[in-house]
């Protein structure tokens, strides 16, 4: 797997609600709706624009160099007080299910299991195991927090029974109504109303949130325009929370069992849609290509696809619309090799991008971590 150098962690704090359009048609009377979170493709566009600009002017000749810049993230971060340490959050894993009511809800885990005799599945051609809830859980599915604090997320990676989600958060949407102004009169144009919906980075309990990411780009400190309507955010290179190393419990479990869960922290681009592709050539990098441990996909928990487009600065044209595997998706893999080789594979995969295409990996798509897949 690639091992890019990411020398600096950077914080980006939105000053206003961020408008990251979801690509729906937009015109008079419509609303421009934001995606549920900032995708890496939007952030890497800002990074490359800032890195390639000098004295307020962008040099198109720098584009080939800019395309080699790397990104890890973004991850939601609670900024805290001036003297507080920023806290890292992770997207909710797709193999987690909350059952029960408000008074007694409990977190359950989806796990691969052999299908019962006589049960027909629609994935026979994929030769994948279904994901089921163990035991006989009761209750209606509840709504999980959109983002989990890192200690709770790490407990989920380690398959601990107690996972506390009390500090989990969901970003609200800020709804605004606007009018189009007549430049000749300076008054509102009749009938030309439109709305916007932006991501709020303030919590209901008064928390302040931002984005944490790592990049090898040289970025300025201070206010920058970001997202739709060029709303202001503040960049702080060299600041941010510590990105944790892989827990020893995960390393030990994967080395011992030869089974692992790969969890996406950012959306991933795969040639086969929702799943990693098998290599076409021996030189290809994919999550399923490692000549030492030879990963095999056994099961997957994947949410609805995230549809992305954008503007291609190099080609000066719209990018093709793509459907990506969303953040929080979980892939269960079985591994070969020795325990030492599996341990090395986990360390290579931790904080690596696992998209099939090299440019997508440089752009931050498919940032992944690894969790245990127990003996049950």
UniProtKB/TrEMBL annotation:
Q: Which Pfam families match?
A: Cas_Cmr3 (PF09700)
Highest taxon of the source? Bacteria
Q: Which InterPro entries match?
A: CRISPR-assoc_protein_Cmr3 (IPR019117)
Name assigned to this protein: CRISPR-associated protein Cmr3
From the broadest rank down, the organism's phylogenetic lineage runs:
Bacteria, Thermotogati, Deinococcota, Deinococci, Deinococcales
């Amino acid at each position: 797997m690639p091992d890019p150098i990411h020398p600096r962690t950077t914080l980006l704090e939105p000053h206003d609600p961020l408008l990251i359009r979801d690509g729906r048609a937009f015109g008079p009377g419509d609303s421009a709706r934001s995606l549920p979170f900032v995708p890496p493709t939007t952030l890497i566009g800002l990074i490359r624009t800032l890195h390639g600009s000098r004295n307020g002017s962008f040099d198109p000749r720098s584009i080939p160099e800019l395309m080699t810049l790397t990104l890890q993230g973004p991850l939601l971060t609670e900024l805290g007080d001036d003297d507080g340490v920023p806290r890292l959050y992770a997207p909710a894993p797709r193999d987690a299910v909350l059952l029960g009511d408000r008074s007694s809800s409990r977190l359950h885990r989806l796990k691969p299991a052999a299908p019962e005799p006589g049960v027909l599945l629609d994935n026979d051609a994929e030769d994948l195991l279904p994901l089921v809830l163990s035991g006989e859980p009761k209750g209606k599915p509840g709504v999980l927090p959109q983002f989990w604090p890192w200690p709770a997320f790490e407990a989920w990676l380690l398959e601990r029974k107690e996972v506390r989600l009390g500090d989990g958060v969901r970003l609200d949407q800020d709804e605004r109504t606007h009018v189009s102004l007549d430049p000749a009169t300076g008054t509102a144009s009749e009938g030309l109303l439109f709305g916007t919906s932006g991501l709020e980075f303030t919590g209901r309990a008064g928390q302040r949130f931002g984005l944490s990411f790592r990049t090898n780009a040289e970025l300025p400190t201070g206010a920058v325009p970001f997202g739709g309507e060029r709303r202001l955010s503040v960049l702080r290179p060299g600041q941010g929370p510590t990105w944790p190393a892989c827990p020893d419990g995960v390393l030990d479990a994967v080395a011992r069992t030869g089974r692992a869960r790969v969890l996406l922290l950012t959306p991933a681009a795969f040639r086969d849609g929702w799943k990693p592709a098998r290599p076409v050539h021996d030189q290809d990098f994919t999550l399923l290509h490692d000549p030492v441990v030879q990963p095999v996909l056994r099961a997957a928990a994947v949410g609805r696809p995230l549809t992305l487009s954008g503007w291609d600065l190099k080609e000066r044209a719209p990018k093709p619309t793509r459907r990506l595997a969303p953040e929080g998706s979980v892939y269960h893999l079985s591994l070969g090799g020795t325990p030492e080789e599996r341990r090395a594979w986990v360390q290579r995969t931790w904080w690596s991008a696992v998209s099939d295409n090299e440019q997508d990996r440089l752009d931050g798509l498919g940032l992944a971590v690894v969790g245990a897949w127990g003996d049950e």
